[in-house]
Every structure is written in structure tokens, then in C-alpha cells.
Amino acid sequence: MKLIPSENIELKTELSNQEVRKILHEYIRPKKESRFGFKNQKEDKLFEGTFEMDEFKIQRIIRGRNSFLPQIKGKIQSDFNGTRLTAVLKVHSFSIIFMIFGLTFIGFAFIMGIIGVINQGTNPVLLIFPLIMIAFVIGLMHFGFNKEKENSINDLKRIINGQ
Length: 163
Known about the structure:
Elements: E1 6-13, H1 17-27, E2 28-29, E3 47-52, E4 55-60, E5 71-79, E6 82-90, H2 93-120, H3 128-160
Parallel strand pairs: 2-3
Antiparallel strand pairs: 1-6, 3-4, 4-5, 5-6
């Protein structure tokens, strides 16, 4: 199991390179700044990001917030029977840095607990709390990423009729 979740995907379609390019242009909007408020606008696009020269950097448009929403970086390539879309799904860099900082802090607390057990005779049962926190943080990251990863892959497959 990877500490930081990521996924490489490859989708194939019988559509031509031009058709896939046109479809992606229809379903990708430029990235918008975060807005606060209660207005829910009907969205006709599925993804937001950039698409240039057969390469794209996108993410799914969702309601609410998910810090572990997959960032999709990929490209379109011509293939024998159509077009191949290859992409890498990763967690946003800011979220990775934040998680590393948090895990470092929790790891430091765990090490200090071990030192307390060895030198001062502290109850070793207290060491379970930092371990539970580490497992929770890693589990939260994997759950949030995998939930949205499946939705992103399914949306990409649906719009390009891929296998």
C-alpha cells in the first residue's frame, strides 16, 4: 500500500484524436477561484482545468470540498484503432505537504511517548493514541482519494466512450 495514493490509467476509444479533443473541450472549463455563498449554479461541465496541445491538467467539479480530490494530468495519443488517453491521478501537492507536516508532528509525539515510557516509566498504553491518529490520517487520505478517483475515471470513460 502506498503512503500517498496515486493511480496511472489508460483509456482507449475508437474515436479519432480530433473527436476526443473536441469532446474534452466541451467538458472542461477554466479553473475558477473559490467562491463562498449559497448559490448553486447548474454546471454543464464535468471537469475544470487546462487543455492545450493534447495535454491536460484537470480535476472533477464537485459540490463541497474534498482536499484529496484527484488532480488528473494526462495526454491524448493516436493509436491503431482510435485514440489512447493516458493519465496520472494524484493528490494535490498542498494536501501532500499538509499531510506530511501533520504526520511528522504526530510521529514526533509518538517518539516522545516512547522516550517517556523508557525513561520515566509512563504507561505504554498511551502510545496507542498517536498510532491511531496516524492510521486515521492515512485512512482519511486514501478514502477521500479513492472515492473521487472512481468517479473521475468513470466520468472520463463515459464522455469518451472508453474501455
